[in-house]
Amino acid sequence: MKKILISIIAAIISIPSIAKDNEVSDSDNNLFKAAIKGWHVRLSAGYNIGGTAPLPLPVEIRSIESYNPGLNFSIEGTVEKMFGKGNWGLRWGLRLETKGMTTEAGTKNYHTEVMNDGNIIEGPWTGNVKIYVSNTYLTLPVLAIYKFNERWNMSGGLFVSYMFDGKFSGEVHNGYIREKNPTGTKLPIESASYDFSEYLSKFNWGLQIGGEYTVYKHLAIFADLKWSFNSIFPDSFKSITFPLYPIYGTLGFAYLF
């Protein structure tokens, strides 16, 4: 996986180097611009903050005890082109990003599966649940852009992501689980763990919207919202009985070539 990460980062970083090599002189720069016919290159980096959550919040979750967004990065290389002399354009590219969090909730009759004293126990849990999520995606966004003026623009469209590294694990503590169903045998548990990483879906897709402000000629700051339409687990996964959607915002900067 390390080799894949290094290759992806190198490919993204090489985008501005290619552009820079074509800007050695004014004449070279003009030839480069003519060759790409109005396409502009961008390189951006940002911080993702959000969560992987059910919508709406199910009755089994009674309280949120803690939340830690963790360190989630986003590195992206994109190209964009305006249509004619109008305000509309198209942007697409490739993004390497992580989406993760650590949270703890108080629950009642929360269906789960845990490992306790070497045994797997499934059933409704009442007590605290701690969840750790850390997923790494390679994402392709395809966005329409609208420029209000030389400094302000907004974007919106769809994205599709492939997860090549994922983690969904945690623990339950200070409560009890009933075997199989709410009327099953009550088993008090001080602490037990679970790990559902192997069941995570490889593909994710959803809506992305955002806005950008050009601070200087080659530097812009932006904010995006990425809302996934499918759960991180397939429909066949039953250890958690409700879907969990990655919903993350990104704050970052972009260098414009």
How would you explain this protein's 3D organization?
This protein has 257 residues and is mainly beta. The chain has one domain: Porin (Beta Barrel), CATH 2.40.160.20. It is 12% helix and 63% strand. The protein has two helices and ten strands; from the N terminus they run ααββββββββββ. The chain has helices at 2-21, 26-36, and strands at 40-53, 61-68, 73-82, 88-116, 119-147, 152-178, 186-195, 203-214, 219-228, 245-256. The chain has an eight-stranded antiparallel β-barrel. The protein starts with a helix and ends with a strand. The relative contact order is 0.18. Residues 15-25 have low confidence and may be disordered.
Shape: elongated
Mean pLDDT: 88
DSSP summary, beta strand count: 10
Q: How many domain units? A: 1
> What ranges have pLDDT less than 50 throughout 5 or more consecutive residues?
15-25
| Largest sheet data | 8 strands, antiparallel, barrel
**What's the SSE pattern?**
HHEEEEEEEEEE
Enumerate the strands of the largest sheet in spatial order, edge to edge or round the barrel: 1-3-4-5-6-8-9-10
Helix content: 10-25%
Number of helices: 2
The CATH class label is: Mainly Beta
**What's the Cα radius of gyration?**
23 Å
Q: First CA to last CA: what distance? A: 30 Å
- Would you identify the CATH architecture? Beta Barrel
CATH topology: Porin
Query: What amount of the residues lies in strands?
Result: over 45%
Structural class: mainly beta
